[in-house]
UniProtKB/TrEMBL annotation:
Key words of the record: Coiled coil
Keyword Coiled coil applies: yes
Disordered, as annotated region: 657-735
Organism from which the protein derives: Drosophila albomicans (Fruit fly)
Protein name (database record): Coiled-coil domain-containing protein 170 isoform X1
Ranges of Low complexity composition bias in the record: 694-703
Comp. bias regions, Basic residues: 704-734
Coiled-coil ranges per UniProt: 97-124, 204-259, 285-323, 496-530
Length: 776
C-alpha cells in the first residue's frame, strides 16, 4: 500500500513539475505576446497617424492637381479658340486673295478687251481719216475729243492734213520709243509682280509652315511651362510645408528644451540633487539603478523562495489531499469489507454452531462417548471431525467386512466402489463393541457420503477463514496507516497554515517592491523616452536642414529654368509678333494692289465710256448713227482716200510738176519698206496698272506736242518752197507707210488673237491684211 502511494505520489510530483514548467512557459509566452501586442499597438498608432498625414497630403495634392487641370483646360481652350480664329482668319484672307486675284484677272481681261477695242477703233478711224497708224497707236492714250477735233479739222481743213501727218511722223518715233519703253517697263513690272506673287505665295506657305511649327512649339512650350509651373507650385508647397515643419520643429525644440529643463529640475527635486545637472542626475540614477538591480535580485530570490515554498505547500497540500482521498476511499472500502466480514463471521458462527451441533449429534449417533458436549466457540472442530470420520470409516469397514461374508460379490463391488471414491489408503478397521446390523448399511453409506461432503465444506470454510484472517490483518494495517496519515495530515495542515502566513507577508512585501519598481521603471521610461525623442528630433532637424538645403538648390535651379523658359517664351512671342506684323504689312500691300487694280479698272471703264462717246461723236459728224463700226470705218477710209486724191489733184492743177521723171505718188502706190523700220517684236502685253497709268500720263503730253508741232510745220511750209515740200512729203509718205505696216503687223501679232477684238472687229482685220498685201 505504501509503495503504491509512493509511486502515485512520485507520479503526481512529476505531473506537478511538468505542469509548473508548462505554466512558466505559458507565462513567458504570454508576456512575450503582451509585449508584441504593445509593440503592434504602437506600430498601429504610428501607422494610423502616418496614414492620416498621407491622406491629408493626398487630398491636398488632388486639389492642387484639379486646380492645375482646370487651369490647363482653360489655357488649352483659349489656345484652341485663338487657333480656330487664326485658321478662320487665314482661310478668309486666302479666300479674299483668291477672289481679288480672280477679280484682277477679270479686270485685266476686260481692260485688254477694252484696249483692243480702243486700238481697233482708233486704227479704223485713223485709216478712215488718213491718219498715221503708228501715230494713232502712239496716241492711243489720247482722249476721244482730240480724235473728234481731228476729224473736224480733217473735214474742215483738208488742206492742213498733210502738215499734221508730217508732224505726227516726227513724233511717231518718239512715241514708238516711249511705247517700247513702256512695254519693257510693263513686262518688267509684270515679271516683278509675278515674282512678288510667287514670293508672296511661297512666303504664305512658309508662313503657314512656320505658323504650324510655331503652334507646335508654342504648345510644347506651354506644356513645358505648365509642367514647370506645376513643379514650381509643388516646390513652393513643399517649401511652405518644410518651412512650417521647420517652424514647428523649432517650436517643438524650444518646448522640448524647456520641458527638458523643467524635467531635469523636477528630477533633481525628486532625486534630492542640489543642482539640475545631467552628470549629478546620471550618477544618482546609476545609484538608483544599482539599488534597483539589488532589489530586483533580492526580489527574484524572494520570489524564488516564495515559489519554492508555494510549490512545496502545494505539493504537501496535494499529497495530503490525495492521501485523504485515498484514506477515505480505503476507509470506505475497509468499512464495507468489515461489514462483509462481520456478516461472514456471523454466518460462519451460525455454521460453526450448526456444525458443532451436527458433530455432537453425529457422535451421539455413532455412540462416541468421548464427545459428550459440543465444542466451544472458536475451538477447532477439525480434530473432532477427524475422530468422527475415522470412527465412521471403521464402522463402515466393519460393516463391509460383515457383509462380504454374506454377500461377497455385491459387498466386494461396493467396497471397491467405496475405495475408488475415496482414493485413500486402507484404514485400520477396528471393531467396536456395538454390533452394526445389516439393515443399516444403506444409511451408513449415506452417512459416509454426507461426511465427505461436510469434510469438503469444512476444508472450504477453513480456507475462507484463512482468507478472512488475512483480510483482517490487512484491515488492521490500513487502520494503522490511516492513523499515521491522519497524523501526517495534521502536521501538513499546520505547516500549510504557517506557509500561508509567510506567503501573506511575502506577498505584501512583493506588492510594495513591485510598486517601488513600477515607479522607478516609469521614471526611467520617461527619461528614456525623453532622451529618445530628443535624439529623434535632433536627427529629424538634421535631415530637414539637409532637405531644406537641397530644396533651396532645387528652387534656384527651377527659378533659373523658369527664367530661361520665360525668356524663350518672350523671344518666341516677339518673333511671332514680328511675323504677324510682316504678314499684316503684306496683306496691306495686297490690299493696296487690289485697290490700285480697282482704280485702274474704273479708269478703263471711264476710257471705255470716252471711247463710246468718241464713236457717237464720229457717227454724229458723219451723220451715221445707226451703222456699225465697220461701216463707219469704211466711210472714214473712203473719205480719207477721196481727200487724198482731191489734194493731189488740186496740187497737180495748181502747179506743173517740176520733175517729169518722178510722177507724184499716190496713196495707193506700193512703197518699198525703208531700212529704218524695225521688225515686229514678241513683247508681252504690259501690266494693266502700269500701262494704264503710262497711257493716262502721256495722253495730254502727246496731244499738246502734236498740236504744237503741227503749228510749227505749217509755219515752215509757208517759208519753204513747193518743191522741197513735195520731196519731204514723198519721203515721209514712204516712211509712214513702212511704219504703219510695221505697227499693223505688230498689232496683228499681239492683238488679233484676242477673242473680244476678233469678235468686235473681224472685218477690219481682213481689211488690214488687204491693205498690207497691197503695200507688200
Amino acid at each position: 500500500m505504501t509503495t503504491t502511494l509512493r509511486s502515485e505520489l512520485a507520479a503526481l510530483s512529476y505531473k506537478k513539475e511538468r505542469l509548473t514548467s508548462e505554466l512558466s512557459e505559458t507565462r513567458s509566452a504570454l508576456c512575450s505576446k503582451e509585449s508584441d501586442v504593445e509593440n503592434l499597438r504602437a506600430q498601429a498608432a504610428r501607422q494610423t497617424a502616418l496614414i492620416g498625414s498621407l491622406q491629408g497630403r493626398l487630398q491636398a495634392s488632388e486639389s492642387r492637381e484639379q486646380a492645375v487641370q482646370a487651369r490647363c483646360d482653360a489655357t488649352i481652350q483659349t489656345v484652341q479658340r485663338e487657333k480656330r480664329a487664326s485658321d478662320e482668319r487665314n482661310k478668309e484672307l486666302l479666300c479674299r486673295i483668291q477672289h481679288l486675284e480672280g477679280a484682277a484677272a477679270s479686270e485685266e481681261s476686260h481692260k485688254e478687251q477694252a484696249k483692243a477695242q480702243l486700238h481697233d477703233l482708233l486704227r479704223r478711224l485713223s485709216v478712215c481719216l488718213g491718219m498715221d497708224v503708228c501715230e494713232n497707236n502712239a496716241n492711243s492714250h489720247a482722249t476721244p475729243e482730240c480724235v473728234v477735233s481731228r476729224a473736224e479739222e480733217v473735214m474742215i481743213e483738208l488742206q492742213r492734213a498733210k502738215a499734221k501727218v508730217s508732224s505726227t511722223c516726227d513724233t511717231l518715233s518718239s512715241c514708238e520709243n516711249e511705247l517700247l519703253n513702256l512695254k519693257s517697263l510693263a513686262n518688267i513690272e509684270k515679271q516683278r509682280l509675278s515674282a512678288q506673287l510667287d514670293g508672296a505665295g511661297n512666303h504664305n506657305h512658309e508662313l503657314e509652315g512656320r505658323c504650324r511649327q510655331y503652334e507646335r512649339d508654342l504648345q510644347l512650350q506651354r506644356d513645358r511651362l505648365t509642367e514647370s509651373e506645376i513643379n514650381g507650385e509643388k516646390m513652393k508647397e513643399e517649401l511652405r510645408g518644410f518651412e512650417s515643419r521647420c517652424h514647428r520643429l523649432q517650436n517643438n525644440l524650444d518646448r522640448i528644451q524647456a520641458d527638458r529643463l523643467q524635467f531635469l529640475r523636477g528630477l533633481s527635486n525628486l532625486l534630492n540633487v542640489p543642482e539640475p545637472c545631467e552628470t549629478l542626475i546620471k550618477d544618482k540614477l546609476r545609484e538608483l539603478l544599482a539599488e534597483n538591480q539589488a532589489m530586483h535580485a533580492q526580489m527574484h530570490s524572494l520570489r524564488d523562495q516564495l515559489s519554492n515554498e508555494h510549490e512545496k505547500f502545494k505539493e504537501t497540500q496535494e499529497s495530503a489531499e490525495c492521501r485523504l482521498r485515498t484514506g477515505e476511499a480505503q476507509k470506505c472500502e475497509l468499512s464495507d469489507r468489515l461489514e462483509k466480514c462481520h456478516a461472514e463471521i456471523h454466518t460462519l458462527r451460525k455454521e460453526h454452531m450448526g456444525l458443532s451441533e451436527y458433530l455432537q449429534r453425529l457422535a451421539a449417533a455413532l455412540s462416541w462417548s468421548e464427545c459428550s458436549a459440543p465444542p466451544a466457540l472458536g475451538a477447532d472442530t477439525n480434530l473432532m471431525a477427524d475422530n468422527l470420520l475415522e470412527r465412521a470409516e471403521r464402522l463402515a469397514a466393519h460393516c463391509e467386512h460383515e457383509v462380504s461374508h454374506h454377500h461377497a460379490g455385491g459387498e466386494k463391488s461396493c467396497c471397491d466402489h467405496h475405495h475408488h471414491h475415496h482414493g485413500q489408503g486402507k484404514l485400520r478397521r477396528e471393531r467396536s463393541c456395538h454390533d452394526i446390523p445389516l439393515k443399516e448399511s444403506s444409511s451408513v453409506y449415506n452417512l459416509q457420503r454426507r461426511v465427505r461432503v461436510l469434510r469438503e465444506q469444512v476444508q472450504r470454510r477453513d480456507l475462507h477463514l484463512e482468507l478472512l484472517r488475512r483480510k483482517l490483518a490487512i484491515i488492521e494495517d490500513g487502520a494503522r496507516g490511516k492513523c499515521m496519515l491522519q497524523g501526517e495530515r495534521d502536521e501538513a495542515v499546520c505547516r500549510a497554515k504557517k506557509a500561508a502566513k509567510q506567503v501573506d507577508k511575502l506577498t505584501t512585501q512583493l506588492a510594495d517592491a513591485r510598486g517601488q519598481i513600477a515607479e522607478v521603471k516609469a521614471q526611467l521610461a520617461e527619461a528614456v523616452e525623453y532622451k529618445i525623442t530628443s535624439l529623434e528630433r535632433a536627427r529629424k532637424i538634421d535631415e530637414l536642414t539637409t532637405q531644406i538645403c537641397d530644396l533651396e538648390d532645387e528652387k534656384t535651379r527651377m527659378l533659373s529654368q523658369l527664367n530661361a523658359m520665360k525668356e524663350r517664351m518672350k523671344s518666341s512671342c516677339e518673333s511671332n509678333q514680328n511675323r504677324r506684323c510682316r504678314d499684316e504689312a503684306l496683306i496691306n500691300s495686297l490690299r493696296d494692289d487690289v485697290s490700285r487694280l480697282s482704280a485702274q479698272l474704273s479708269d478703263a471703264n471711264q476710257r471705255l465710256s470716252h471711247l463710246q462717246s468718241f464713236r457717237t461723236s464720229v457717227a454724229r459728224t458723219l451723220h451715221l448713227r445707226d451703222l456699225p463700226e465697220t461701216d463707219l470705218l469704211h466711210r472714214l477710209q473712203a473719205l480719207c482716200s477721196a481727200h487724198q486724191e482731191f489734194t493731189l489733184l488740186s496740187k497737180r492743177y495748181e502747179t506743173a510738176s517740176p520733175v517729169g521723171d518722178h510722177p507724184c505718188p499716190r496713196y495707193d502706190d506700193p512703197v518699198p519698206p525703208s531700212s529704218h523700220c524695225r521688225p515686229p517684236r514678241d513683247l508681252s502685253p504690259p501690266a494693266a496698272h502700269h500701262h494704264t497709268s503710262a497711257s493716262h500720263n502721256h495722253s495730254s503730253h502727246t496731244l499738246s506736242h502734236s498740236h504744237s508741232h503741227g503749228h510749227a510745220i505749217s509755219h515752215s511750209h509757208s517759208m519753204h518752197g513747193r518743191h522741197h515740200q513735195r520731196q519731204r512729203s514723198k519721203s515721209r509718205d514712204k516712211r509712214l507707210h513702212d511704219e504703219c505696216f510695221d505697227s499693223d503687223v505688230h498689232r496683228l501679232h499681239h492683238g488679233c488673237k484676242d477673242q473680244l477684238l476678233a469678235n468686235n472687229s473681224g472685218g477690219s482685220c481682213d481689211e488690214d491684211y488687204d491693205f498690207k498685201s497691197k503695200y507688200c
